[in-house]
Structure formats: structure tokens, C-alpha cells
Design goal:
Order of helices and strands: HHHHEEHEEHHE
Radius of gyration: 24 Å
Distance between the termini: 69 Å
Helix content: 40-55%
Shape: elongated
Strand order of the largest sheet: 4-3-5
Number of strands: 5
Structural class: alpha+beta
Strand content: 5-15%
Largest sheet: 3 strands, antiparallel
Length: about 180
């Protein structure tokens, strides 16, 4: 382990927070708080269990070394990711990522949650469902999804002969050419 050399870290607590055990202690407290705040309840493992899990992980060790090498930057800091964001913090649903990897994974997960499934019709006959307007756009080979969005808003009757509606929308609102 490298020597911690920042003047601001003359404080013993700050020095400890930049050691593996100190960083894990601080992270464990944050996981406890986040788990309760997100409605997942209390953690099912103790601080010692968490430290043991982390210190036996080659990925944690690798990320911690990168964090040290990067002068303890926020982006490189080891972070616990919930593999399935719908489940809480349990060891089989947790993995190590850098803070920035976890941040961008979270952004992608939120974007996926915002995608609305759309159904495709031809002459009033249901053909299939796409996960999103963007998937329908790619299927039709369109450069943008504006025409499909216009169809969904009722501003356009068809797109390449097809009509679309959001999957959970009232079927009577579908306009077919």
C-alpha cells in the first residue's frame, strides 16, 4: 500500500478512510443508509462480513490499487453496484465497479426504465411489440424516431405504412390509415 501523503490528511480519521478497512467501514455505513432509504430494509450482513467479502475479492483489490494510483479520485473509488437494481444489497446481487462505472451504469438503468414499449400495426392488425420507440426506429431503418413519435402523438397517420401506439394505451385511441 502506498503512503498517504496529502497535508489535509493529517487528521487520523481521514488517513483511516483512505485505507482498505477504513474505506470499507465508511462504505458499509452508506450502504446501510441507502438500503433503508430505498426501502430494502436492513442489510443482511455485518460490517465484518462485508469487509471479509471485499478483502477476498480480487476486483476490490484491483480497484483499490487504481484508486490509490489515481490519488484517491472520486471517479476511481471502489463502489458497490447492485447487479439487479430492483433487488437490495445482498452478496449475490453485488459487484465491484469504480464510482464512475457505477454512476454511468445507473444513468443507463434509469434511461431503460423510461423506455415505453410500443406496438406496431399494419392496416389495424397487430404485428408486434418493441421495447422502445428507438427500437422501432432501428427496425424500420429510420435516421430518427421523429416520425414514429409524431404517429404516437396523432400528428401523423402512418410511418412507412405502419402505425404505432404505446403498449399500455387505450386500444380505441389507435388511428389506422
Amino acid at each position: 500500500m502506498r503512503e498517504i501523503k496529502f497535508r489535509a490528511w493529517d487528521n487520523p480519521t481521514e488517513k483511516y478512510r483512505h485505507t482498505p478497512k477504513g474505506m470499507l467501514t465508511n462504505l458499509y455505513q452508506k450502504l446501510k443508509d441507502r438500503s433503508t432509504a430505498k426501502g430494502y430494509g436492513s442489510l443482511t450482513f455485518s460490517l465484518n462480513d462485508f469487509k471479509l467479502w471485499a478483502l477476498n475479492s480480487d476486483e476490490f483489490k484491483r480497484l483499490f490499487e487504481i484508486w490509490e494510483f489515481d490519488n484517491y479520485s472520486k471517479n476511481a473509488k471502489p463502489s458497490v453496484d447492485r447487479i439487479n437494481p430492483m433487488k437490495g444489497y445482498v452478496f449475490d446481487n453485488m459487484q465491484w465497479l469504480s464510482w464512475s462505472e457505477n454512476y454511468y451504469k445507473g444513468i443507463a438503468e434509469v434511461a431503460d426504465k423510461k423506455k415505453k414499449p410500443v406496438e406496431m400495426y399494419k392496416d389495424g392488425r397487430f404485428l408486434g411489440t418493441f421495447k422502445s420507440v428507438q427500437d422501432a426506429q432501428l427496425f424500420l431503418g429510420l435516421k430518427s424516431n421523429g416520425d414514429i413519435s409524431d404517429n404516437l402523438r396523432g400528428k401523423r397517420k402512418t410511418v412507412k405504412g405502419y402505425s404505432f401506439r404505446y403498449k399500455f394505451e387505450n386500444p380505441e385511441s389507435l388511428e389506422v390509415n
